[in-house]
Design a protein that fits this description.
Blueprint: H1 2-20, H2 24-27, H3 30-42, H4 48-71, H5 77-97, H6 104-124, H7 129-151, H8 155-168
Helix pairs in contact: 1-3, 1-7, 3-6, 3-7, 4-5, 4-6, 4-7, 5-6, 6-7
Length: 224
């Protein structure tokens, strides 16, 4: 857990430094890019290179979607729907063609980065797509790259921690029951009530000898 905290602190310091020493374009997308890049680095699915490649595919697909909207599609709900369909189809096709080596979730993070950073800028002036998209793409990629670098080395550690948690958890998902210890019974201690063997009853005396003395009477013999 200490490594996770250190990585989070490094990401926070790096994002703050980007905001302090960059222009307005990069400042507006620093938090979005750092958060998406940090998530891309933390999720232990595939290698860091594969995750970064899938992110780039999704990012490029979203950029092509905006290019398609600016060049050929009408600025309406139908045009935006077609662009969204094309972007997601590209992400699905790449993930399927690589048999998941470029994971779909990372490609979707790339599309979210481009769309989240550029949608408002594009809506304000679609005719300036070439210049505005290049500036926005550069800014969001710098922020996302910083977040990815700050957390990518923790992917293996996170995977090991999750594996240890699954190994320690019971099969039914409940919390492990505390061990119950019982005090050992002292040797030679008193037996509890009701544990004694029943006492043997006394034998009844012979009815024929009832009333007879316990010893034979003294019978002196006369001397001859």
């Amino acid at each position: 857990m200490r490594r996770h905290i250190l990585a989070g602190l490094a990401l926070a310091v790096l994002a703050a430094a980007i905001v302090l020493f960059s222009g307005p374009d990069l400042q507006g997308v620093t938090l979005l890019g750092a958060a998406l890049g940090g998530a891309l680095g933390l999720v232990p699915d595939r290698s860091p290179g594969a995750r970064a490649g899938a992110f780039a595919v999704g990012f490029l697909a979203a950029w092509l979607g905006y290019a398609l909207r600016a060049a050929a599609l009408p600025d309406s709900a139908a045009g935006r729907a077609v662009a969204v369909l094309v972007v997601l189809a590209i992400c699905l096709a790449v993930a399927g063609a690589t048999r998941g080596r470029l994971p779909l979730w990372a490609a979707l993070l790339g599309t979210a980065a481009m769309a989240g950073a550029y949608e408002a800028t594009y809506a304000a002036d679609p005719s300036a797509f070439v210049a505005s998209s290049a500036a926005t793409a550069t800014s969001i990629l710098l922020a996302a790259g910083a977040g990815f670098v700050a957390t990518s080395l923790l992917g293996v550690v996170v995977e090991q921690d999750r594996a240890q948690e699954r190994a320690d958890a019971p099969a039914d998902g409940s919390s492990p029951a505390p061990a119950v210890t019982t005090a050992a019974e002292p040797v030679g201690g008193y037996e509890a009530a009701g544990t004694h063997a029943p006492a043997r009853p006394y034998a009844s005396p012979d009815p024929a000898r009832r009333g007879a003395p316990a010893t034979r009477p003294f019978d002196p013999q006369p001397e001859a």
